[in-house]
Amino acid sequence: MNEAFIINDITKLAYSIRKNAALSISSDTNETLDDFISINQVENIIRNYTITSEDDDLILDEDGYNSIFDEITSWIVNVGLAKLAGSNKIECAWDDEKNDMVFWTNE
Asked: Which of 92, 77, 90, 82 is nearest to 101 (CA)?
C-alpha cells in the first residue's frame, strides 16, 4: 500500500531528506551541503512531488518520497562530479555512443 502523509514543515523535511541523501552516498559530509543543493532547491523538488489538499496541506506519498530522495541523491552526486572535474581531480567528456557523460582519472 502506498501511504500518504501531510507535510507539516517542508523546511524541516527538506533538511532531513538532504542530510539522509548525502549520508547514503558517503559518511564523510565535511563539505557544506549548501554547496551541493540548497534547502530552497530541495523544497522545490519536494513541491514537484506533492499535491495540495483543499485545506492547502502538502500531501506526499511513499512513491513521491522515494522519487525526491533519488533526485536529491543524484543532484548531490552530479554536483560532486562537476566539482571534481572543475578542480582537475577527474576528467570528463561526453560519450556519443553511451549518450552520457563519462568520467575517469589519469592515474
From this structure: 92
CB 6 within 8 A of CB 13: no
Three-state SS at 49: coil
50 is in which domain, residue-wise?
4-104
CA distances from 42 to 34, 46, 94 (A): 10, 6, 27
C-beta separation of 37 from 83 below 8 A: no
pLDDT single digits (tens) 16-47: 999 999 999 987 766 689 999 999 999 999 99
- What amino acid is encoded at 17 in this protein? I
Q: Residue holding cell 502538502?
A: 58
Rounded to whole angstroms, how far apart are CA atoms 50 and 54?
13
The share of the chain scoring above pLDDT 70, in percent, equals: 96
**Number of folded domains in the chain?**
1
Integer Cα distance of 103 and 43 in angstroms: 30
